[in-house]
Structures
1.
Amino acid sequence: MKRLILLGFLSILAAATIVVAQSTTQATLRTQNGDKPVAIARQGGQTYFSADDIAAALGGSVAADAHGFRVTINNNVAAFGPDSRFGVVRDDLIEMPVPPVVIDNRPYVTVQFFQGFLAKTADLDVVWDERVRLLSIRPLQHTIVGVQVSVANVQGTSKIVFTLSQNSGYAIVKEQGAYTIRFAAQIRPPFTEQAYEDPNVAKISFTGTDVRIQLTGGDVVGDAYKLENPYRVVLDVRKTAPGPANPVVPLPSRAVEPSGIHTIVIDPGHGGKDIGATGPGGLLEKDATLAIANKLAAALAVKLGARVILTREDDSVVSLDQRTAVANQYKADLFLSVHLNAAPVKGAHGSEVYFLSADASDELAKKAADAENQSTSGHADTQSDLKLILWDLAQQEYLAESNRFAQSIQEEMNALAGIQNRGIKQAPFKVLVGATMPAALVEVAFISNPDEETKIRNEQFQNTVVEALTRAIQRYKNDYETRIGIAQPAAAPAPAATPAQPPATQTTTTARTGT
Amino acid sequence: MRRVVLAVALALIVAASACKKPQQQGRNLSEANKVAMRPVRLYFEDGNFLLMAEPHNLPLPENPAAAIPVVVREMMKGPANASLARLLPPDTIVRGAYLLPDGTALVDLGGATLQQGWGTGTHEELMAAYSIVQTVTANFADAKRVRLLVNGEPAETLAGHVWLGRSLYPMPSLVEPASR
C-alpha cells in the first residue's frame, strides 16, 4: 500500500516536471529602453526565446505566412522557417544550433537568431545570462570580441589575418617599422606577445584594444582590408624597394588613374589536392592549366613586355580568395583564370569564356550600399582609418571592362582551328568575385572529351592556345589604352588561327617582365 | 487500495492533459497539406548543353515546405529520358530543403563526393547548381532564389568554381527556351 502511494506521488511529480519543462516561463529582456518580460521555453537542453517579445521590445513585429515567419525591426527583415536552423537576413545566413519551435502558434528561437540578425543590421549584441535569466541587447562595441591571429607568407607577402568572433570597427596607425590596429570593441587576445620567424613580421603584441605588429624593417609596407563571414581584418605586408618609407597605407588597387595594362596575373586553376576535373585518359586539369599558364606567362612577358605574375608556380593548393588577393596585392591590371571544362553530356567540346554574372553584382551592390553606410556612420574617426572594403564587391566596378576582356579572348579562341565557339558567358564564379581589375575565366577545352583531352596533352596545341590568349590580351590592351588616351589607335591584329612559335619558357620566376 | 489506484490514475491523466507539448513548425504548417499526384518539372542537361524540363508526376503535399525536398530528391534520381544527363555526383543526397518567407529556398546537400571535394569543370558544376535552382523556382512560385548548403553548413563552392556564398537566382540563359 505504501509502495503504491509512493509510486503514485513519483508519477505525479514526473508528470509535473514535464509540464514545467515544456511550458513557457518568463525571463527579463533588457534593452536601452528598459526591462521587459520575455517568454522563454526549454526543450532538448536549448533555451528558446519568444520572437514576438524581442521584436516588440525593439519596436518591431513578427508576421507568419505559409512558409514560416518574418521578423521586421527598423525596416530590416529576417526570415526563418520550418525545420531549418538557418535564417536569412540580407541574403546572409543566420546559423542557429537547432530549428525554431512553435508554441501556441507563435515562434520561439534560440539566442543565435537575434545575435545574427541584430549584429548584421543594428550593430547590437544579444547576450543570455542563464544564471539570472537576463537577456541583454546592447551596442556591439560593449562586448568582448575574441581575436585569433594567423601569419602566412606567400610569394614574399606576409598575410596577417585577425579573425574576429564578431564585427568590430577598427583604425590602423602606421608608425616607423610597425602598424597598430585599434579595435573599437574590447578584445580578447589569444596571447600577449608572440614572435614570428617571418621575413616581414617580427612580433605581434596586444595591449588593451590595440594590437601592434612589429615589422622586420622600415622598408615594409602594407595593405589592409576587411572580410566578412567570418569577420576578418587582413593586413598584407611586403618589402618595398629601397627609398623613403611610404607613410600612407595604400588601399588595394582601384582604377583611379588609368595608366594602361602593365601587370597581368595568370591563375592556373586548381592545384595540390584540388585536382579539378580528370580526363577519361587520366589527364588532370590542375597539371594542364599549370602547363598552359606557364607558357602564357612567358609569352606575355616577351611579346607585351608585361609584368606577369602566376598565382601558383607548382602543384600547390591556393585558395580562391588567395588567387584574387595576389592579383590585388600586385595591383594587377588584368586577371585571367585558366581552366579546362567538363560536362556529363558526351561530345561537349570547344572553349568558353566567363566573366562575373550581373545578378551576383546586383546583390553585392546592395551589400555595398550597406557597407558604405556602415563605414561612414561608424568608426571612421581617425585620419588613418581605412575604408571598409568588402571582398565581395571588388569586381562590381570592372564588369564592363571584364566583358570587353572576355569578348576579346573569346574571339581569339573562336579563330583557333578545331575549337568551337560556345560563347561568352556570365556566372557567379568565386575566383572572379574579389578581383579589383578586369577579370575573366577561360575554359580552354573539354578535358572530359577524349579527343580534346588528347589535344590538350599536345605541346603544339598548348602553344596555339597560348598564342591565341596572348593575341587576345594584346588586343584588349591596345583597345583599352586607346580608349583612355594613352595610346594611338593601332591596327589590332586580326584573330588568326596560325599556330604560334613556342614562346621562350621560363619556369622559376614569379614575376616575369619582358625587355 | 482501489481508491489509491484510482487516485493515482486520475492524477496521471490530469497531469498528462496539462502538458503543453511544443509543436514543430513543420507539423503546424503541414495541417493543410493534402498529398495528391501533382505534375512537376525536373531539370536535366540536354544535348545542347542547356537545362531541359522533364515532366514527372509525384505524390506531393500542397504545402511547399513539405513538397520541396520531395521534388529535389526526385530530381537527384536522374532523368527518365536517356538523352538527358543527370547532374551532380551519383552519391549526392538531399539532407533537407526549406522555403523561407523571404522567398529563399535552402537546399542542403550531402554525400561523400561533395564532402571530400568534387573534381569537375565549371560547366558541369554550373549546370548542377542551376538544375537545382531551376527545379525549385520553376515548381514553387514563392521560391525566388536558392541557397545551397553542403552537409548543413555554408560552403564556398561545390567543385571550386560557382560561389555559394550568396543565393543563386534563376539564370534563363542556361535553360532551353521551351523549358523556361
2.
Amino acid sequence: MNKILLIIQREYLSRVKKKSFIVMTLLTPIIIAGFYGVAIYFSIQGISGTSNKIAVVSENKTLLEKLPSSKNRNYQYVDQSLKEMKSSLKNGSYDYVLYLPDFDLNHPEGIQLLGNKQAGLTLSSKISDDIEELIRNQKLKTSGIAQEELDKLKTSVDIDTKKISDTGKEEDSSAGASTIIAYVSGILMFMFIMLYGVQVMRGVIEEKTNRIIEVMISSVKPFQLMMGKIIGIALVGLTQFVLWIVLTASISTVAMKMLVNDKDLKESAMQASVQAKKMPSAQVAAANTPGIGNIQKSLANLELTKIISVFIFFFIGGYLFYSALYAAIGSAVDSETETQQFMFPVMMPLLFGYILSLSVITNDPYGPMAFWLSIIPFTSPIAMMVRLPYGVPDWQLMLSMGLMVIGFVGTVWVASRIYRVGILMYGKKASFKEMIKWFAYKN
Amino acid sequence: MLSVNHIVKQYASHRALDDVSLTVEQGKIFGLLGPNGAGKTSLIRIITQITAPDSGEVIFNGKRLNSDHIAQIGYLPEERGLYKKMEIGEQVLYLAKLKGLSTAEATKRIKYWFEKLEMGSWWNKKVEDLSKGMQQKVQFVATVMHTPELIILDEPFSGFDPVNADIIKNEILELNRQGSTFIFSTHRMESVEELCDHIALIHQSKKILDGSVEAIKQEYRNNTYWVEYEGTLQPAETPFDIRETEQHKNMTRIKVQLKPGQTANELLSVLLPQVAIHRLDEVIPTMNDIFIEKVKQKN
C-alpha cells in the first residue's frame, strides 16, 4: 500500500512540476476568460453601440407609414434619387442606402441595400424584419383593423415549464437549464477521459521505452505500478480542472468588472427585452430574453448537490474504466505510433456515447435509447450526466452506478493481466490475439 | 543462501526453462552464463519475482521466496533505464524508497555513494543530460544502495568505458567482501574469470554445466602444453601429438598434446637431450573456450 502511495506521489509531482502543466493551467483560463470577455463585450456593444445611419429612398406609393428607427438602425427618409444618394454614400454621410421601389404589397421585389461595406447578416435580416412588419401593418390597416386592435395583437409569450415531481409537487424546470448542465457535464466528462486516459497510456509507453520498467517491477507489483499511475494522473487532472474553474471564474469576474459596469449590463438587458416585445417576429430575442430569469431560477431548483456528487462519481468511475484500457494498450506497444489500431476500438464507444448523448438524449431524455446508453458502463458516464438534469428514477441511477463499479473493476482486472505481460515484451508486434493470450497467462 | 529447485517455465509455445536447479552460496559471486535466448533472463525474472515459475520453487535463506524478500534483492536488468525528465537525486531516492528505505536513511546513503563514485554534483541534473556511461553509474548505485543480501547484475559492464568498468568492478568486489552475494549474468568471459567463484551454463533452456570456476577449468584441461625451444627437434623421435608449430627466428614454439597418462616430466625427458628449452606452459582452457565448446557440443 505504501508503495502505491509513493508511485502516486511521483506520478503526480513529476507532472504537476512540469513547465507545460503550469503554462497550460495558467493559460487556458486566460484564454477562456478572454474569449468570453470579448463575446460579452461585443454582444453588449452590439445592442447598445454602433448605430447605422440608413438613408431611405422610397419611390413606393402604397406604404404610408415610415420605417421606425431603433437603437442601431437610424432610418432617415431622403428626397433624393437613388443615383444622387449613391454619390453621397461615398462622402460618408450615410452608412447605407435602402431603396424601396414602387412594389405591389403582395410581391415586394427590387428592394436594395447599398453600402460602402457589406451589411452584416444580423443587420440585413433586422432591416428585412422591419420592412416585413411595416408591410404587414399596412395590409392590416387596409383591411380595416384599427391601430388599437393592432397593438393588442402583439403579445409576447413566455412558457413557464413546470415538472410534477414524484411527490406531486410542482417544480420549476427549464429545458434550457437542463440542456446547459447536460451539455457542460457531458463535454467535461468526455474531455477528462480523453485527455487523461491518453496521458496514462503515454506514461506506460514512456516507462517501456525508457526501459525503467524492469527496474520498477523488481520492486513493486505491476498492478501497483499501473494503479499508482492511474490514480496519480487522475489527481493531476482533478487539480488542473479545479484550478481552471477557480482561475476562470476569478479572471472573468475581474474582467467583467473592468469591461462593463453594472448599469450598462442592466440597461442592455432592459433594452433587449423591450426590443423583443417590439418585434415578436424576431424569434431569437423573444425566446431567449424573458427566459433568462427562468433559467436562473431553475438552476437553483435542480438538485445541484445530487448532480455534483453523481458527476464526481462518474467522473472517477468513467476515468478508471477507460484509463485502465489505455494502460493495457500502452503496455502492449513499443511506441506511440503503434497505438492507432488499439485506440480506435477504445475511443469508439466513448465518441459514440458522446455524440448520441448530446443529440438524442437532449431531445428525448426519457426514451429507450437514453435509458440503455446511461446504463451500459461504456457510455454511461457521459449519457447519465446528460440525462440527470432532466430527472432520472433512483433505481436507474443505482443500476447505472452499480454497473459502473462492476465495469471498472472488470476493466482494471483485465487490463492489469495484459499489462503485467505486455510491459516486459520488447520489440514484439502486439495484436488483439496476442493480448488475449497474455490475458490467459498464469503469473 | 539461494537455491533454485526444478524450475520449469513455459511460454505459449516455447519452454524457457526446463527443470533448472542451482545453488548459490552465501558470499560468492555466481556467474550465470549462456548464449542469447538460453533462458537466463527468464530465470532471473523468477528470482526477482517478476514472474512466477510453472513448477519448482526458489528458496531464499531457507524460506520460500516471497514478497518480503524484495527488499533484500537488488537487480540491475540488462534492459535498464531511468525516467528521463526526473532529477538524478530525486530518482534514486524514489527507487530506494520503493525498496523500503526511509527518506532520511536513503538520502544519507545516496550522498555516500555519490561521493564515493564522484557523482557529487549530479544530484540536480536531469537524466537526459547525462551520458550513457553516467546513467549506468546511477543505475548501479540504485541497485546496490539498499545493501541487499543478493545482488543480481545482468551485463553490468555494457556501456562503461574501461576506467569506469574498473571502478564498478572494484565496487562489486568490495561489496562482496562485505558479505553481499552476487549473481552475475554476462557474455564477457574475461570478467567471469576475474570475478566469479562459481558458474552455471544454461543452453536451450537446460543447465548444461555447473561448478566452481577452478574445478571446471581443471576438468577441461586436456594435457596440452606450449613449449619454446632453440635447436632442432626430430619429429620421428617424439611420441607426442604436435598440434601447432610456430617459428620465430631461431626460436620454435610448439603446442603438444600428451596422451592420457603421460606427464609433463615425460615430455621434458624426451625434449631435453635434443633442444634447449626456454619455456614450458600447460594450456589451461579459458572460460571462453569452455563456453564455446560446450555450446557447440550441444548443437
